[in-house]
Design goal:
The chain is of the alpha/beta class. It has helices spanning 2-34, 45-50, 69-79, 96-108, 125-143, 163-170, 191-213, 229-238, 251-261, 289-311, 316-327, 329-356, 369-396, 398-401, 404-432, 447-452, 457-463, 469-475, 485-491, 497-508, 530-536, 558-566, 579-589; strands spanning 56-61, 85-91, 112-116, 149-152, 176-178, 181-183, 225-228, 266-268, 281-283, 538-544, 547-552, 571-576. Helices cover 54% and strands 10% of the residues. Helix 1 (2-34) crosses helix 7 and helix 7 packs across helix 15. The chain is globular and about 85 Å long.
């Protein structure tokens, strides 16, 4: 009986809160359903390709990212369909493995630049970005040029092939341009990563377009966020040259709010569902409960708590509404699991009473009007779940969307734990009169997905002016079964082997050329089984910073990655060589049985 009284005591205030919050969410949903799908014309591919390329700087802040940053830089350099850009990678002096990993890529790619923070780390992402900003300006002074657009990215990002072209196009008229960000697809029952898929799909299909439509400020996503140079200079001038607030945990959100207050025009590009593929920055998000709580506690602390403390509510009624939506999770996240428990308890007791043909005792413990409130909140919740399923289904497919109800329950638990942790961090820092600590997320680069997004070899050869488009079109129907396009072009004497391998290096982002003798460790050349060495034509030659460096004359495949990774706990890092060079190295370093 005491459970029934507890239910009645908690249900009334909880139902009222859920009704208010639910009506707020429903209003956004109704605007989404009534609004036009696109409010501005999407440029044609030819428009994007022919538009003059403005200089773009990509800023990538790092701390302990040596395991992924090499693959991220190499993969994106091979993927991006834009020429006039440079990447400035921020590192700390006391993070030597990351410094070495970036320096190796910078030696091979002149558009990659190391930017050192002036002090040891870690500090905060915003502080690292400030150091990169200063280094970028020094680079401009040395080379007497100026970047017109600045884009922020992280070490795990798979940059969309067309995103810089789209940014170049839209940044002519807007001071902030946000490219969509999507978690990479995972199995439907992988609940933790799946909730990120659901939330990002809903937020970027529904909430963010409605927010911009109704005049709300655009909160940056941290990655794929482009800023016009003039707007950044104005913002930096207002803060004595400091662009990002080094104590802010969510510098992207803070920037969006401040730039909007300055009158800057902001655009969320949104999804073009009529195109062959959705343009978005893609990445893996945390896939375990603990990692998700760690990341989301930083989001809640930065957006809701720090945002409240720093900006208050003095932003005009339109912005106050969006601030309310950004901060109401401080209450809603803590109450959602309680609401779920009460719902299941009430439903179970009602069903039991129906089966026993007994009156439901909870009906007599709550006012009569509460039945209407329960029905309203239940209906609104069902509508919210349905809209989330629609958004998730549009991005990830119907089968994945069917798991939204289950993942929503898990999402409530994760958000509750993250909000409780953020409150603990915030008030502990206040009591100690210190700053909130930057809690870094461990990252993984989606190398297999990047491989699927590569440009075709024929396209690369044409862009490098190794062969004419007409030669590629004529060759494709003539390539015999079992022979690859590049091999056929060599046999037809359309290209040389050297040009083919240069194109393969550009296409895959894998460095080309045999290692120096001083780089080869003879013991390392024996770490892979002879059978695997023969089958895949690979030669391991060095172990460094958590990587096994491998020479190969073949473009790596997913099957090759999977088998080689099974022989070592290290991440495989490839180096491409021509077949003749590989045979020379194999004869020099491998036993006769393996070679």
């Amino acid at each position: 009986m005491w459970l029934d009284y507890g239910f009645a005591a908690a249900a009334i205030p909880l139902a009222i809160w859920l009704l208010i919050s639910g009506l707020d969410d429903l209003a956004v949903g109704l605007v989404w359903l009534a609004a036009p799908r696109r409010r501005f014309p999407w440029p044609r591919d030819s428009d994007l390709e022919e538009a003059p390329e403005r200089p773009i700087a990509i800023l990538v802040p790092l701390w302990h990212e040596h395991r992924v940053i090499g693959s991220m830089l190499e993969g994106n350099l091979a993927l991006v369909a834009y020429r006039n850009y440079d990447i400035f990678v921020g590192v700390y002096p006391n993070d030597e493995p990351t410094v070495r990993a970036v320096a190796e890529v910078a030696q091979r790619h002149p558009r990659v630049h190391l930017a050192f923070c002036p002090h040891d780390g870690p500090t905060s992402k915003a502080d690292c970005l400030n150091a990169i900003w200063r280094d970028m300006k020094a680079f401009e002074a040395r080379h007497r040029m100026r970047f017109e657009v600045v884009v922020t990215h992280d070490a795990e990002d798979l940059i969309d092939r067309q995103s810089l072209r789209a940014i170049n196009w839209f940044s002519r008229d807007y001071d902030t341009v946000q490219v969509p960000v999507l978690p990479l697809p995972t199995p439907p029952l992988e609940l933790t990563h799946g909730l990120y898929c659901d939330e990002f799909a809903e937020f970027q299909c529904k909430d963010l377009p409605v927010r911009v439509l109704l005049g709300g400020f655009l909160p940056g996503s941290g990655v794929g966020t482009a800023f016009g140079r003039e707007a950044l200079e104005r913002l930096a001038a207002s803060r004595e040259g400091m662009l990002f607030d080094p104590e802010c945990l969510t510098e992207d959100y803070d920037m969006g709010l401040r730039l909007h207050a300055m009158g800057c025009r902001q655009l969320f590009i949104g999804f073009n569902f009529e195109a062959a593929g959705l343009m978005a920055t893609r990445e893996y998000f945390p896939r375990t409960f603990r990692a998700a709580v760690r990341q989301r506690s930083r989001w809640v602390a930065g957006i809701a708590l720090q945002g409240w403390a720093r900006h208050g509510w003095r932003r005009g009624w339109r912005q106050v509404y969006w601030l309310w939506r950004d901060r109401k999770g401080l209450v809603g996240n803590l109450l959602s699991p309680v609401a779920n428990l009460l719902f299941f308890y009430g439903g179970a007791t009602w069903l039991a009473c129906c089966l026993k043909r007994e009156p439901w005792p909870l009906a007599g413990l709550t006012p009569g009007w509460m039945a209407h409130c329960y029905l309203a909140t239940l209906s609104i919740s069902a509508a919210q779940i349905a809209m989330r399923m629609v958004a998730s289904g549009r991005i990830y497919g119907t089968r994945f969307a069917l798991g939204v109800p289950l993942r929503s329950l898990w999402c409530n638990l994760v958000n509750c734990a993250a909000t409780a942790e953020s409150l603990r961090q915030f008030f502990e820092a206040r009591l100690k009169r210190g700053a909130l600590a930057w809690r870094k997320t461990e990252h993984a680069y989606p190398a297999h997905y990047a491989r699927d997004q590569r440009p075709r070899l024929g396209e690369v050869l044409v862009n490098m002016r190794c062969v004419a488009t007409s030669d590629i079109e004529a060759a494709l129907p003539l390539v015999p079964p079992g022979l690859r396009l590049g091999e056929y072009l060599i046999q037809s004497k359309k290209i040389s082997e050297e040009r083919l391998y240069r194109a393969l290096s550009v296409q895959t982002g894998i460095p080309l050329g045999a290692p120096r003798a001083a780089e080869v460790d003879r013991l390392t050349t024996r770490v892979l089984p002879a059978e695997a060495v023969r089958r895949w034509k690979v030669l391991p030659y060095r172990v460094e910073v958590g990587h096994l460096d491998v020479v190969t004359a073949e473009v790596p495949t997913a099957a090759m990655d999977e088998e080689l990774a099974g022989f070592s706990g290290l991440q495989i890092r490839y180096r491409l060589v021509r077949p003749g060079e590989f045979e020379r190295l194999a004869g020099q370093y491998l036993p006769v049985s393996a070679a």
